[in-house]
Structure formats: C-alpha cells, structure tokens
Design brief:
The protein is 30% helix and 26% strand. The strands form four sheets. A six-stranded mixed sheet has the order 2-6-11-10-14-15, with no helix packed on it. Strands 9-12-1-16-13 form a five-stranded antiparallel sheet, covered by helices on one side. By secondary structure, it is α+β, with helices and mostly antiparallel strands.
Length: 359
C-alpha cells in the first residue's frame, strides 16, 4: 500500500531582513543603545529588579519604570550599573540608515521558550497557501472569470470598510475545498502540513530593521518603526507533509505555484519600482513585506490590478485614502509604495527569501 503522507525537507534562505512577529513589543525601557558597538542590548528587567531588591532600592527601580522621561541609560549612569550582567541578547543596529539612533519600541520576533528565534509553520503555510490558490485559479479560466466578476460586484456594493471583500475572500479561499454535502466541505488545504522551523541557533541571527517606504521616484522615507528581523543569509529548516489522500498535489506543483505567484508580482508590481526578483524559488514572507506579498489581486487581475486595488483601498482606508495620496496613483500602481529596509548600507526588499525543497 502506498504511503499517502509525503514528507519533504524544506529550507528557506533569507535574502533580505525577514520579520515574523510574536505580537509583543520591546519597550524603550527594556533596552539600551551602545553607540560604539552599534548594538541594542535587550535587558532582563526581572533580573534587574532582583538586583535592586538585593540592595534595598526597589523604590528607585519602580520610579524608573513610572517616569516616562527616565531611560535605562539614566539608570545605568545614576547607579553605576554594569548593564552587561543583565543583558539577555543583543541586536546589531548598524543596518539602520543614518547614525542618529532614537529610542523607539521594537516589534519582537517569534522565539521559543529558550529564547531562540524560529518561524512558525503557520507563517510558511500561509505563504504557500496564497501561492497555491492563485495558481489554481489561474489554471481555470472559467473560475477566474467568475471570481473576478464577484470581486468587482462586491466592490461596487454599498458595503464599506474591511468587510467589503469578506464574501469574495471566502469564495477565493474555498477554491481548494471539496463539497461533501449541503452543509459540509472538506478543507483540502488541511492536507498540507507545515512544521514550525527548527530553532535558529546561528550566532546573532537577529538584527534591528527599520521600515523604509520606497517611492516610484526612488525616494526613501525611513519610518519610526523598528523590527527584530532575521538578517540575510540565514538558513531556516522546515518539513512540509502532503497528505495525498486529501490534497492531490506534489512538490513540483508547489514550485510552479510559487514561481507563478512571484512572476506576476514582479511583472505587474515590483519592476515598476525597479525592484523584485525573477529567479525561481523567490518568495516573500513575514510582516512588512507589503500588500502584494499577501494577496491575490495582482495574480488575478494582472494589468487591471492597480484600479481594483485602488477600489479596495478607497473602501477600507476611509479618510486616510486621500491623506496618503492614493488617488494620484490609481491608474499607475497601487499601493504606490514599495516596502523596503536597510542592511549594511544597502536597500533591500523586506521579507525576501529563497525556498528550496530538498527532497
């Protein structure tokens, strides 16, 4: 009897800073900036509190936490602390543009209980799922035409806000579902099982990345947003299991889906900024990679995607639509900003990876 579970080793190689957040933030009082080493040192506040407790100065520590104008640097100077004794880990912040570092909240990367960064399987599966759905739709012209009509009808309806495409989104997501009866459907994407990555134990794999908005005119706007990110060149290992009794695809099908998704994104979006990549296996992962890396609009509507995306933005952004000048670019490109970041003085597309199916 043939084994219905096909297990494949997968390796993701980061080609730019990649951020996968855990939903938490590192507050400004939790780290100190070493301007000489150009590193951010993340401090264990519990250990620091225990130190102040041991010397009978808990009140001073509490006052530090409550005083908005008092930084950790102030506390170090006041009490002549050897802060390295309380550091959990460090982040290289030399990739940041310019030299004028400002204390800001840092969006944290996902870590295991031992403090090692990793990428949840749900993040990789989400990337694969989006590409697979786009590819399946592209191979069925009738299905594609029907879904395009439905999306256009939903956009023309009076519904505003993020719910305007809810019905269409469900229709698109059901492309990989199989009707069992009037009440039940088999979720075929449940046949794709993706593990969490192995813990990333490289020496200092995380860097501090700053969000950069890159315009059509080549202007770079640094935003006040810091993210813990995997630096370029990090290898991340997963397993992908295909239950062939549920989902009748193989690794080559997944490769083709990813390449189709990337090809459409490049042809109709990234190349207009002079960015992106056409090489096989290129993929986009994590937070800050942008609208085009998480949606199917460009893969479905192609040259008409800017106008469709503009209608989506108009419905969902409200007053921010005109504030951010979306109306000026609706016939050219939408979104009209490419999401980038810096690393070692070079501008990178945020979240760019190379995915390799090893077996």
């Amino acid at each position: 009897m043939n084994n219905v579970l096909k297990v494949h080793d997968v390796q993701l190689i980061t080609e730019s800073p990649v951020h996968v957040g855990d939903g938490t933030k590192i507050e400004k009082k939790q780290y100190i900036y070493d301007h000489i080493a150009q590193k951010v040192k993340i401090v264990d506040l519990n250990c620091l509190y225990n130190h102040f407790h041991s010397i009978g100065r808990e009140t001073a520590f509490t006052e530090f936490l409550l005083n908005r104008n008092k930084s950790l640097q102030n506390l170090v100077i006041e009490f002549k602390l050897n802060i390295d004794k309380f550091v959990k880990y460090e982040l290289d912040c030399s990739p940041l543009p310019g030299s004028d570092f400002k204390l800001r909240e840092i969006i944290s990367f996902t870590k295991d209980p031992y403090g090692y960064p990793y990428i949840p399987g749900s993040s990789l599966k989400g990337m694969l799922r989006t590409a697979l759905i786009a590819y399946k739709i592209s191979c069925d012209q009738t299905l594609l035409d029907n879904l395009k009509v439905q999306i256009e009808q939903d956009l023309e309806s009076g519904t505003k806000g993020r719910f305007c495409l809810k019905k269409s989104a469900k229709s698109i997501e059901s492309v990989f579902d199989k009707k069992i009866n009037d009440k039940e459907s088999l979720k075929l994407m449940s046949g794709l099982i993706v593990s969490d990555s192995r813990p990333i134990m490289d020496d200092s794999p995380l860097v501090l990345a700053q969000k950069i908005d890159f315009t059509l005119k080549g202007k770079q706007n640094a935003l006040p947003i810091y993210k813990e990110s995997l630096k370029p060149g990090i290898k991340v290992d997963f397993t992908v299991t295909i239950d062939t009794s549920v989902l009748n695809i193989d690794v080559n099908y997944i490769r083709n889906a990813l390449d189709f998704y990337q090809k459409m994104a490049f042809q109709y979006y990234y190349q207009k900024f002079g960015r992106g990549d056409t090489s096989s296996g290129t993929s986009w992962l994590g937070g800050g990679a942008g609208f085009t890396s998480k949606t199917l609009i460009y893969q479905m509507f192609m040259q008409d995607a800017p106008l469709i995306t503009d209608q989506i933005f108009y419905k969902t952004l409200g007053n921010n639509y005109e504030k951010h000048h979306h109306d000026e670019y609706k016939r050219i490109i939408t979104p009209h900003i490419c999401k980038c970041t810096f690393y070692n003085g070079k501008l990178y597309d945020m979240g760019k990876c190379k995915i390799n199916f090893i077996n």
